[in-house]
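Input/output pair, single chain:
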Amino acid sequence: MFTHIFENAGVPPLWLAAAALGIAVVAYILGCFNGSVVVSRYILRDDVRGHGSGNAGLTNFYRTFGGPLTAVVILSDVLKAVLAVWFGSFIAGQLSPELVVLSKYWAGAFCLLGHMYPCTFQFRGGKGILSGGAIVIMIDWRVALAAWAVFLVLAVATRYVSLGSCGAAATFPFTSAFLYRDALITVLAALLAALVIWKHRGNLVRLANGTESKFTLHKKAAASGETASGEAEAPSGGPEATEEVPAEEVSGQADAPDSGEEKKEDEA
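Output:
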């Protein structure tokens, strides 16, 4: 039943409401700190949402900018998820240990909402894969193991990050329901999964149409492309150089005897 956790906790409804509201607000605010937007706008001075897919997530940031700042984005998205779930479990633990697991799902849902729809960045956020993955790990390692395994198998086998993400999200409600057998936890898990899949709806359409981009090491490919183009240009520039240099040398050699004869005449 929906109420068995609350009945076992024995916490007054007013305290439950206050704790739920406080956890929701803090988790949402933490989620609004979007690493991709912060790094691209205030460090690189170039908003990631103006490039590629327009998404303020890790994949689009890496494809657009690459480099060591990608690690900063990863750290920020993971850290905010860890803090949000930890805060929720801490507050719930002060009321009753029975509420801890439920509070993790509750905090995770609002952190993910903040990441996807941040009020600080015109409600244009990321798709929640990295933060969602960290949230799942914080909730239960068994749930995380199933979700991450599905993600890795699908993403590595197909090179579609979006397919792996949606597959991992789809497993989340089922593993949560199997482990906890609680309707409210299952509903929150389904909400988290639905948020991720909804944000990937465009990717799913492209997958169905066969136009979805596969994950590649974008920056390395670009660098090799520049090298290849440079090598391609060299042959066309090379002949011109070899034609011009001998011409200058010939003209120089033609002038040399005159200058030498003039010198001999002066000395004479």
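Residues 217-268 form one domain. The first helix runs from residue 4 to 9.
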